[in-house]
């Protein structure tokens, strides 16, 4: 099988991220059978989201016991964000890094394979990214005190599963992977089969494409750093120096700044965020802010721009003007021309019935809304309670108001009397998406 681990040495200590699925169990088994006698630490996280997860925890632990592999398990007992996938990923990698430190490991191995690389590249092209983002992910990534490795990057999912089945090796099956609810699954089920029917080695072509982009990106990055030394200092953009740079270099600086916060997790950000930041930096306002995913803020203060955690009460009490696009925490709002959806994640408005401009803000004590199809007003607090929104999440839901502070929409929960039916006239349609 096409697996390259020539960079590993005898007795290397490797933490292996092991979900229990076929990919990670294959990786664990492959490294276990390597004659270089690696010291392996199996890192397994039980997300507690499926009935089968407890038994999978037991099975992975049993495999490790039978094969003299150190087993380290972690159970996530509660979540504090509506964005389960992102929070779970952060918890997982914090756990992995703690094990790297505990065992003085030189490597963290993950089971990303060739199909994963294809899916990632396609999704980032569709969503918008930068040069390194369009390349997907690297085979080897140097971290502060270890290297993250992806030895299976030249294999396909089918090759891995066929090997596991042929050797009668246990692995867990996550039924949610068969659903089309998640974007990645739709690429996996519909786009990749077509590409593979055109070329059975298409995954290697995508790998070559990725490598070419990464080489170009590394060269460009060296040039950008040399050109922009005065404009990028201590993870801050110096605005007067920024403004004299070419547009391409400006956008690279913003990407670099975002990378300091989000690392390789480029699904959280896209080129729209770069546009918003660039627009704020170049605006005539001496001070301003733009909301970014995961409760971060981009803050302009006179001649500097930086990204910081949104933990200020003053910030939470601010109004954020909505034009065409806005991100607040895990919520992404965009103006659309037409849409068939009529859920609580869509609001249709007649601009003559409200006072523009529109703003998003977080809830205040005593907030009330005239709920659509109900007489009178109802407290936002009561609406959230009736909708069984967890208390920890109630202050994180943005509220749409007009310039008279009339509450128009509680995204994902309820609409006000200002919402228009699909058959009625409207000239403003706003869509909400959750990260």
Structural class: alpha+beta
CATH architecture of the largest domain: 3-Layer(aba) Sandwich
Instruction: Using the coordinates shown, work out and report the CATH topology of the largest domain.
Output: Rossmann fold
- In terms of DSSP E residues, the strand content is 15-25%
Number of domains: 3
* Tally of helical segments: 13
Q: How would you describe the shape?
A: globular
Which CATH class of the largest domain applies here? Answer: Alpha Beta
User: CATH-wise, what's the superfamily of the largest domain?
Assistant: HUPs
Looking across the biggest beta sheet, what order are the strands in? Answer: 3-2-1-4-6-5
Please give the radius of gyration in angstroms.
24 Å
Distance between the termini: 37 Å
Number-wise, the strands total 22
pLDDT < 50 stretches: none
Biggest sheet overview: 6 strands, mixed
Helix fraction bin: 25-40%
- Overall pLDDT, averaged? 91
